[in-house]
Design a protein that fits this description.
β2, α2 and β3 form a beta-alpha-beta unit. The protein has about 180 residues and is an alpha/beta fold. α1 packs parallel to α2, α3 packs parallel to α4 and α4 runs parallel beside α5. The protein has 7 helices and 7 strands. It has a single domain, classed as Enolase-like C-terminal domain (TIM Barrel). The relative contact order is 0.10. The radius of gyration is 17 Å and the shape is globular.
Length: about 180
């Protein structure tokens, strides 16, 4: 996987895709700015590399536009900004209707990560999760449970709700007074 963070022009993104076509990339994420959905579609049409996008989109309507333009292969809603689980289910329905895949963007913290797990695991379009191995206390310390990955697989919580318990001591230590 490669992530351009929406920084390339359409021409740069198309050139990159040509250069890496034989590298078997799983996807190229956000090759152009999220505001340029037509440009994204142009990159997608010119590329054999699957295109993913969505971490900067806000509603199912944004994702529907991407799907209608055939601008991506993988939709990546960030549930912290895209309306939570309910809107995530609607976005997944868009993905399913257009034969696209769903890979929730999961970087903001443990509650959003747990919501993304629930969404990906419960929707037919869901197939993969992003997981940060970096030092992110909001992901790795905010809740008591650990999101353990074994052989590339994450355990889906079987507890009620999102399956997490906020560590109140962590919140107190980091709360502003």
């Amino acid at each position: 996987m490669a992530d351009a963070h929406g920084t390339w022009t359409v021409a740069e993104a198309k050139a990159f895709c040509r250069m890496v076509e034989d590298c078997d990339l799983y996807w190229l994420e956000e090759p152009v700015t999220a505001d340029d959905k037509t440009g994204l579609a142009e990159v997608r049409r010119a590329s054999a590399v699957p295109i993913s996008t969505g971490e900067s989109e806000f509603t199912r309507h944004d994702f529907r536009e991407i799907a209608e333009l055939r601008a991506a292969d993988i939709l990546q809603p960030d549930l912290a900004i895209a309306g939570g689980i309910t809107e995530g289910v609607r976005i997944s329905a868009v993905a399913s209707a257009y034969n696209l895949r769903l890979a929730p963007h999961l970087w903001s913290g443990a509650p959003a990560f747990a919501a993304g797990i629930a969404l990906a695991a419960s929707q037919s379009a869901g197939f993969i999760l992003e997981y940060s191995l970096g030092a992110n206390p909001m992901l790795h310390e905010l809740v008591r449970e650990k999101f353990t990955v074994v052989d590339g697989q994450i355990e889906i919580p079987d507890r009620p709700g999102l399956g997490i318990t906020v560590d109140e001591d962590f919140v107190r230590r980091h709360a502003r007074h």
